[in-house]
Amino acid sequence: MGISDYYWDAMSTDSDRRAFVQFALNEGVLRFGSFVTKSGRTSPYFFNAGLFNSGGSVGRLSQFYAQALIDSRQPFDMLFGPAYKGIPLATATAVALAAHPGRGGRDVPFAYNRKEAKDHGEGGLLVGAPLQGKVVIIDDVITAGTSVRESVDIIRAAGAEPAAVLIAMDRMERAGPDGNLSAHSAVQEVQQRYGLPVVSIASLTDILALLENHSEFAQHQNAVMAYRARYGIQ
Q: Which domains does the chain have, with CATH numbers?
């Protein structure tokens, strides 16, 4: 049995959303405590996919991405990773999809963008396979939707079709200042604005399920539930 076969055998019994939350916790990607977010809010939990920073952890992460996409049954032809976090995510997920036993060895093209156009060599903003067909955008989370908007513009400008957005964690959180919160979460805004399905490996609901079922994290449950009641979607 090869190493890829071993991983996928494990995946068949360990691929649900809560397994991903446990994996993120084990890798220090998901943490509980008190954290000030980019928006200035004090959150009782923090999810930083940038801390998947080793070959083993990224390899496992990519299998969660690949399985979530397959389970969604969204038709797709290739992947697109917005700079910068989306670049390794799209690359690794393309590798995982090509090795997935349920896809019969079908290869998966991918591409990504540069932040600044290159004026020598092949030039341009895009690197990788030509954008064509149905394209899935891969990122870690959706906060303001900026990278999705830029990716949609790039994909459509190339004559391809944005098909879906695939992320690791849906925080299920509304934006804006207290007293003037948005009606929808960032994920819902993307779905409505672009008409694109957003597939997530896991969500805040799955984090709460972990807190409910693991006594060692019980002290954080009330704080996370209160945060969701204040900022979350219903």
A: 3-231 (3.40.50.2020)
